[in-house]
Amino acid sequence: MTNSSKKPKHGTTRKSAKPLSRARILNTALQLADANGIEKLSMRKLALALDVEAMSLYNHLSNKEELIDGMLEGVVSEFDVPIFEGDWKSAMRSRAISAHEVLIKHPWAALLMLSRVNVGSAMMTWANASYGCLHDAGFDYPLIDHAINAMDNHIYGFTLQIINAPVSSDEYANAAGHYLPLIPADEYPHINAMATLIMQGEHSGVNDFEFGLDLILDGLERVLAAAGKVSGSPIS
């Protein structure tokens, strides 16, 4: 047996592997989680995808928890960071749409982000910029907290609904047609009317993320005006 055919010692990379780095590990882990789900990600499978020995990963990461934290940081780094340039609603609207689209792209991430405390630089930068945008627009800190909670609840809740129970307009129309006979118009006229519209293709029946987001933003604008704050005149 030649030296080149011997199995590498634990903690070393295979000779055919590219140089191993924390960034390369995290990027590969993201790809695996996106393709197969976070529940199927293991350090062994990650090492196999990287063509390294599993113990090599621990030269760059302490454990799987640190791996997941790093993966979530990578996801958050894709979010648009809001900047106040005179129109806080547009900035926060872009912020929410970006986060929603990124979380749909990485469907395993939303639930983990809700269940873990993330104080990584990407999350802190995103959160601080979000607070700063609203503060520069005239929101005080208690109102900022309410506003961010309302927007983020919409982002995460809507995203999880789409991920866990995706329904196309065609599927919704078929379901409406199936159940319509069980919804007599004389007993449930309004539900019957809505189901008929959906069945006939006159209404998609699919929830609209931006519709709900705009309701929240319009409501926050009214709250800001009622509090007597002037956009662009922050208070402490």
From TrEMBL:
The keyword Transferase does not apply. GO terms for biological process: negative regulation of DNA-templated transcription; response to antibiotic. Keywords: DNA-binding, Repressor, Transcription, Transcription regulation. GO terms for molecular function: DNA binding. Residues 1-20 are annotated as: Disordered. It holds the Pfam family TetR_N. Residues 42-61 bind DNA. Transmembrane segments: none annotated. InterPro entries: Homeodomain-like_sf, HTH_TetR, Repressor_TetR_C, Tet_transcr_reg_TetR, Tet_transcr_reg_TetR-rel_C_sf. Residues 19-79 form the HTH tetR-type domain. Residues 1-17 have a biased composition (Basic residues). TetR is the repressor of the tetracycline resistance element; its N-terminal region forms a helix-turn-helix structure and binds DNA. Binding of tetracycline to TetR reduces the repressor affinity for the tetracycline resistance gene (tetA) promoter operator sites. This is Probable transcriptional regulator, TetR family. It comes from uncultured Thiotrichaceae bacterium.
